[in-house]
């Protein structure tokens, strides 16, 4: 399952990249982030845990990222229930003096022999994962846009 959201931010590409590449800033930018604990960060390789507030309570995830020029690759070693693999990327595209940010997530679900044979509960669970993740991507992109366009950072 591949999900993708994009947004245009009225800010230079390097400022947008810096805000998203710096996990220390996420707590001040994304409203539901309550904690970020950086384990390792050499500017290119990053490992950290991030805690987000959800209606069901706080949820902490371990994230490993590889920061390249205008791209951040993400791997999540521990996956949600019934998800085998989670990979992601942030792409930064120059658009005159603005930046287009593409947030892409790829989830590999546990082996399903026949999608037509999924139980009703499995079907609803996978739809919920897709809806929740899509909404989260949209909210995060809007949070970065609002922060970068309305808060003057050098």
What are the defining features of this structure?
single chain, 154 residues, alpha+beta, Alpha-D-Glucose-1,6-Bisphosphate, Chain A, domain 4, seven-stranded antiparallel sheet, 3 helices, 29% helix
Q: How would you portray this structure in words?
A:
This protein is an alpha+beta fold and 154 residues long. It has a single domain, classed as START domain (Alpha-D-Glucose-1,6-Bisphosphate, Chain A, domain 4). Helices cover 29% and strands 45% of the residues. It has a seven-stranded antiparallel sheet with strand order 1-7-6-5-4-3-2. A hairpin with a 2-residue loop joins strand 3 (45-54) and strand 4. The chain is globular. The model has no long low-confidence stretch (mean pLDDT 87).
- Distance N terminus to C terminus? 38 Å
Would you tell me the structural class of the helices and strands? alpha+beta
Overall structural domain count: 1
At the third CATH level, what is the topology name? Alpha-D-Glucose-1,6-Bisphosphate, Chain A, domain 4
**Strand fraction band?**
over 45%
The stretches of 5 or more residues where confidence is low (pLDDT under 50) are none
The CATH homologous superfamily is called START domain
Short description:
With 154 residues, this protein is an alpha+beta fold.
Topology, element by element:
Blueprint: E1 2-9, H1 13-21, H2 26-29, E2 33-41, E3 45-54, E4 57-68, E5 71-76, E6 83-95, E7 98-109, H3 120-150
